[in-house]
Amino acid sequence: MTRNKFGEIVFSESDICDLLMCSGNLPDHPLITDAVVDQSILDTALDTISETPDSVSIEEFDKQNQQNWHMPAEYKQLDIAEYLLRLCTTDAQLQRVGHELLLYQQKDLFDLLRYLKYLVDTMKQHEIIWGVGRGSSVASYVLYLLGVHKIDSLYYDLDPEEFLR
Predict the structure, then answer these.
(1) One domain, residues 148 and 108
(2) Are residues 104 and 62 in the same domain?
(3) Any bridge partners for residue 9, and if so which?
(4) DSSP symbol at 90
(5) Structural domain boundaries enclosing 26
(6) Domain boundary among 66, 83, 114
(7) Percent over 90 (pLDDT), the chain
(8) What pLDDT digit, counting tens, does each position of 89-100 carry?
């Protein structure tokens, strides 16, 4: 948390998450009273904390949480296919991205791609360093375009089926 030029306490997204994890109830936290908090960050953070009834099975719990991506609305509403296709500059890139997007769509993974875009943007914003790429994920040109890894699978002619089996 920091103070703005008016002396008000300003919370970042990670500050709010830390407070939520420590107290479990952000609005009752004493520091929030005089703080300036971006409402969209607050809404997103509050959505992440919820009690799961004991009657829910592990399978149901997993299914519910696999559909719940905690990211800002701008990423949830991002047309990820259009975004990726706009990054293409050659016909070969367009064909590869189109092929991979069909594979991602068949597996209902567009929310995952949106989340990865959010994750990479957040890491860049906070100057967090991540690896060059590991395993079969480097076979995905879409992940390369998103910045998840640094291996140009089109250049190395890697088969996207290796990743998206």
Answers:
(1) yes
(2) no
(3) 3, 35
(4) S
(5) 2-66
(6) 66
(7) 44
(8) 999 999 999 999
pLDDT in tens, 45-59: 555 555 566 777 888
Q: So what's the pLDDT on residue 33?
A: 44
Q: Are 82 and 109 in the same domain? A: yes
| Domain co-membership, 84 together with 153 | yes
CA distances in angstroms from 140 to 64, 97, 106, 155, listed in the order given:
27, 9, 15, 12
Roughly how many angstroms between the first and final C-alpha of the chain, as a whole number? Answer: 43
Q: Same domain for 14 and 33?
A: yes
Tell me the per-residue pLDDT of 62-74, one tens digit each, with 9 for 90 and over: 777 777 788 888 9
Give the count of alpha carbons within 13 A of 49, CB side only: 16
**149 touches 137 (CB < 8 A):** yes
Same domain, 155 and 80: yes
Tokens representing residue 104 in the block: 């991602």
Could you read off the pLDDT of 96-116 as tens digits, one per residue? 999 999 999 999 899 999 999
CA distance 4 to 79: 34
State yes or no: pLDDT of 25 exceeds 60: no
Shared domain for 87 and 125, answered yes or no, is yes
Looking at the 3D structure of the chain, how many domains does it have? 2
AA identity, residue 92: A
